[in-house]
Amino acid sequence: MKKMAPFVSPAGYDRIKVVNSFNELVTSTFGPRVNAICWSRTLTGNFDELAASFGNEEEIVSLDNKTLSRLRPGLSTMGKAAADTLLEDIHLLQGHGLSPGLECVPRYQRDESSAVPTDVYSFHADRATVPADTYLCSYNEVATEGLRNDQAQRRIDMPATRVKLLDLFRQEEDTGDFDAYLRENCYDLHYAALSEAIPFSFGIGNLWRIAVEYPGCPVAPCLHRAPATTTGQLPRLLLIS
Question: Burial of 82 by CB count in 10 Å (0-12 exposed, 13-18 middle, 19+ buried)?
């Protein structure tokens, strides 16, 4: 099992607020600089045992109450505790009016066909058309990674990348607006880490609420990515809403 430890914010970085309860997580506000709120916690249960139940799956598996209830009788005491924790987190978010999804993720698809890869292994911001947040929790293996906003650059603002995208635009579009093209393809949501950047881990077991890009959002969106997967690694258990 991956050891859980309290989350510690990167030194000198004031965009993350650490809280001690679910109520604080959902009632805290973003701003004037804060764009990520972390409920730092240590969970009970063997989440690796639960993930191992899906070790032969090649595709992402969505877990629901029925699936977890079916697995529960065959789990150890600590495995059952992990399943109960997942159900409790789902119920907490549903009770707040959200629609959380619980996924068992062996790997994500890579985007290797573009000047700007737009898969989740790339540092990116989420986007919505109305005020919204993203909730995330990694329960085992390696956790979601974050990137400080002051250590990042939009890929579309990098001259060499912009030239490649402009060439791609001309090949794909007879007419249209280049900036609209970048937005429609989500190229504008992806970021490169600066040379001095030090990405940080969201940590195992912590429940995060992060700012997304939407019209009128009071803060810059939180930049994050899925961690790289390795051969032989258990699938990740990930809650997202």
Answer: buried
